[in-house]
Amino acid sequence: MRLEAENIAVSIAGKSIVKNVTLDVPEHKFSALLGANGSGKTTLLRAIYKTQKTDSGTVRLDGEDIARFSGKKIARRMAVMGQFNQINFDYTVMDIALMGRYPFHTLLEREKDGDYEAALEALSKVGMKDYRDRNFQSLSGGEKQRVVLARALTQNPKVLILDEPTNHLDIRYRLEILSIIKDLGITVLAALHDLGLAAQYCDYLYLMRQGEIVESGVPEAVMTPETIRRIFEVEAAVYPSPIDGKLMIQYL
Ligand SMILES: Nc1ncnc2c1ncn2[C@@H]1O[C@H](COP(=O)(O)OP(=O)(O)OP(=O)(O)O)[C@@H](O)[C@H]1O
Fold first, then answer.
1. Relative to the CA of 44, which ligand 1 atom is closest?
2. Domain 3-77+157-251: which topology?
3. Which GO terms describe its molecular function (predicted)?
């Protein structure tokens, strides 16, 4: 499914945070939004998934403006994993995964055939199946993050929006989650901080600075020492890995 955002502008308390951003996110690819702290990544993602009021802009899924879509209609197409996943009630891991099926239910329906299986499959994918009866609150930060990703996967989305999906994860799960996301074969737009992992896993990169997309393209085209200096104000060398030719970054 194609995700387009056109002329998205957001200002908060009179300050311009996202400045007329236009994105045509490559279909069935894993794209990342990169930028320094405070450059506007979260705000842009929230504007795309409609939890942030915008000054202007249109978001389209397969060419259709989603402004008039109901929440459920959006959720049947697009799943979101935000940066802060506070769930303050007493839910089990399975309850959380099953919440991903909600967009497919009518008002009075509880669960349908296949919901449990879909939730279990998603929990297996993120390595949390054996935790299904645990209380969500009792999990570590990284375990919670994996369960919240499972909830998004249970939604069976065509578009997945992720804000720092590997934030709390150790290196093994970082790599595992990124390869799960890559193998989904759906349209993914993720804010990421680790430039090396973004270069290794992503098909397309958007580089954001002070509320604007200043570069976009395949990693080989945009991940250069000049761009890294411009966006992050650090010196780096970028070179192909001797193992698979993917870009590696060494900070100097
Ligand atoms: N509700 C708010 N009130 C005031 N300022 C805000 C609000 N939300 C965001 N901002 C400001 O907007 C700017 C962009 O924030 P945003 O969270 O989008 O950046 P980011 O690129 O996701 O940063 P990070 O990498 O640190 O997560 C920041 O300067 C932030 O302080």
1. 18
2. Rossmann fold (3.40.50)
3. ATP binding; ATP hydrolysis activity
